[in-house]
User: What shape does this take?
Amino acid sequence: MAGVTPALKNYIDVFRCPVCGQKMAEEGLKRVFCLKGHSFDLSKDGYVNLLSQQVKTGYNKKMFAARRRICVGGFYNPLIRLIKRYVVNNATGYKLSDLPLLDVGCGEGSHLARLVAGLAEEDGILAQGVGIDIAKEGVRMAAKYYAGLIWCVGNLAEMPFVGESFPVLLNIMSPANYTEFNRIMRKDGLMVKVLPGNRYLAELREALYHDTALQTYSNRETAWLFKDNFNLLEMRQIHYKVKLNPDNLEPLLNMTPLVWGASRQAVERFAASGLTEITADFTVMAGRKKR
Assistant: This one.
């Protein structure tokens, strides 16, 4: 059993009990618990499940494996470089040898792991990555492939962290809860939010939903909501093409909820299309917590 990792042991003070809100402690290699006795066992894979009750999501092992394959292939590399620049430029006033960095909606962990590695290798910033997601299969995969980071299953609507714990929060194409984000961010904390752009996976959207309302997408209202909750520091659109080989088409289909409402015929046509490139398009915003 993996038990309590050194990283989790060192950062146990940022956790609070999802049942009663009390601070947490750890016991050897077995579990974490609160002062009122609520206990949560450590997974053999090295993550902690802090859900008070299990939740079913549409995100399964096949989907996260496909997403990891696309991530490892470099699809999101330009995006991660931009996020890293935002962190380096704006996470000021902190001890850079000990920078807690929380990825809310971390999925299978590739974005956070690549960002932490890049900060260390290129900028000399030793960030401690913490990833949380409600989908257990994603967190399990993150713990399997990315040791040294803290991974937990938790409810994003009531996150298991004490107030003002994190100087940097990431929310990369995942649901947001700005009340919770503001609660757990430090007073001068940095929030980096990534939205899919209007042309994100446009070729896939066109193939699956031609001549329907789902063929087009706008992130305008979601961007406005971010700006209502944070003082905007930077906002940039990043747009590029990614080369595909035939082996990429199936994982590309499997990694996204876009296929959930599509017909089988449309999915099969795309899989057999021989598409050689696809559009990556993101809106990236950095904001400071409002006081």
Remarks:
- The first helix runs from residue 6 to 10.
- The radius of gyration is 19 Å.
- The chain is about 35% helix and 25% strand.
- The mean pLDDT is 91.
